[in-house]
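Why predict the complex rather than its parts? Because the way molecules touch one another can change local conformation, and only a joint prediction can capture that. The input here totals 301 residues.
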Amino acid sequence: MEMAFEIGVSTLLVIGGALGLIGSYGLIKLPDLMTRLHAPTKTTTLGVGAVLIASMLWFAGRHGQINFHELLISIFLFLTAPLTANFIAKAHLHRTGGYADLPPPGDGAVWAGQQPPEDEQVDEPAILPEEGVGDAL
Amino acid sequence: MFLSRLVPHPFLTLLLTFVWMMLMNSVSAGAAAFGLFLGLVVPFLTQSYWPDRPRIHRPLKIVEYILVVLYDIVTANITVARIVLFVPRARLQPAWVVIPLELRSPEAITVLAGSITLTPGTLTAEVSSDAHSILVHCLHAPEPDAVRDEIKQRYERRLLEIFP
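Output of the joint prediction:
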């Protein structure tokens, strides 16, 4: 029984580690930023999930205490992983001018990042330098 | 009226209480009391950022949705691992897919975008200016139309039942 329990926990740890390794290998192997972005968002879900389940099982079986921290960690990861991926994707589109190559959304709309900023007016500095100041620079 | 000003988001209050108790890892009265205090103060102080209460039509469907997404995360992780390991770079076919949305509530679109990113192989990158479609990047999609149909069938149909 004890043996089976330990094998179960170890299997989960190995699965988690293997997925992390494959995700990191994906970062090297995949050709460009957008495809590379797939690797880290994936390993955080299942790879970290497997390690957290292993941790929960271990402490529940060994010390008879149920930890909720693992559950919270996975919930916070699930909330934050898509956001960071989305931010990186948008920054990438802006930096490379990739918006031109995207398929159009239809209905005459544009992608949100293609819209001109709402307030294009640049705030005037409150104190303008006098005429001639700074010309020497 | 007074009560709804004081407790603008009852569900958020409950959620914060539970999260605090889980953080403390105890079910004692003290943890519950302080959690409830936070659950009352935080929504009250931040209520100007949450003007609307999200309307949820069929709460039990949320459980089904979470189970479907979790199942998909596991199976699709294996698919992506196989793509990374065995598909050579030259044969990889990344694709941009436009998904027209029937969902209109912002919360529902956020949940859909999040689940698309969490399920491996697909990643939400953008939303259109009228919020009527989202842009998804696929790691390896020989048939982009099939991806679009699957996302609409599996996730959006279920979310439409939850968020009217």
